[in-house]
Design goal:
With about 375 residues, the chain is of the alpha+beta class. Helices cover about 35% and strands about 15% of the residues. Helix 1 packs antiparallel against helix 15, helix 2 packs parallel to helix 6 and helix 2 crosses helix 7. The longest helix has 14 residues. About 5% of the residues have low confidence. GO terms for molecular function: hydrolase activity.
Length: about 375
Amino acid sequence: MTTVQGHCDPAFAAVRDVFARNFDEGREIGAAVAVYAGGRRVVDLWGGLADRRTGREWTEDTPAFGFSCTKALTAAAALLLAERGAFAWDDPVTGWWPEFGAHGKDVATNEHLLTHQVGLPAFARPVTAEEAADADARAAELAAQEPEWKPGTAHGYHALTYGWLAGHLVRHHAGMPAGEFVKKEFAPDLDLWIGAPDEVIERAAKLTNVRGVQNEEGPRAVADDALLTRLADAYLDTGSRMNRALNNPSPGKGGFNNPVVLRAGWPSAGMVATARAFGRFYADLIAGRYVRPETLREGIRTRVDGEDLTLTVTSAFGLGFMRPSMTFFTPEAGRGSAFGHTGAGGSLGLADIDAELAVAYLPNRMGDQLSGDLRAYRLVEAAYASL
């Protein structure tokens, strides 16, 4: 039986119980969870193995890969730049990126880049991990590409290309890569990186897929079998928009354990962090330490809500942040003011600006959902119930 380590305020014992039960039920290999309430760290737990192959244990300072949880960091960076007057959300992208106007994309606004509306959910050709490390080249490639729908007329999850679109917005106006700007402005003293140093990569948790008890009832808690079948068919169809968006660029040998990917720091899926640091980011964000409260509320205001042309289910987004929907499940108490982002495999970052709650969960056992899973939902549910 896995021993859960760390600190948990007695008032939040339900979170510890859920975290421990996930291990007892065989749903985890290694994981960490952190909860902040009213700016105070009330849960800081970890357990299991950071590396199943070697038996290395998960420790207090073990960082883990957060997949698309990264998008919230890039979104916050864009919010900060907009607050400083670098650009306006309704201005055309071509005002600072003239090349982006190719193939009728001149109608795209800066808002469209962060709300998955520009019609570039996937690269038109296979891209390698090594090619993806050249952010400027990939941005230029997307700028020259024909959109799959007219920008602003629909939304479809830009699973990986978001990093070279929203990330390029940050890169251009900050004068440095998005990951560097995030580190400078949000995380100079936190164990959080988009583009991790080699020593961090060396001690990071290793992602793994293991069949067996995992998240079988998770999807069925929110979707019927017909929908699940449609999702599975779309994901497995190599020609579908979903498959193309989620699997290109390829992470290459070793998957998302590949140092080439972790070192490059894709602004869509490149965060390596401890749950403690990731939760601290969200706690500081809702406390007004990065941007003004009114800026954040504008950033999390729902801009698109409905059918997602990539994921084939409904999704909802503010300016880069997920809002409650089929792709971002929240308890009833959080459906008005919760925001954040899920990551493939089960990772989650969530904050609630009204409840003053922040939750960060990073596992290394890959879940079977495209976006979040039951392990994360149970933790968030317990956190809300403990307030």
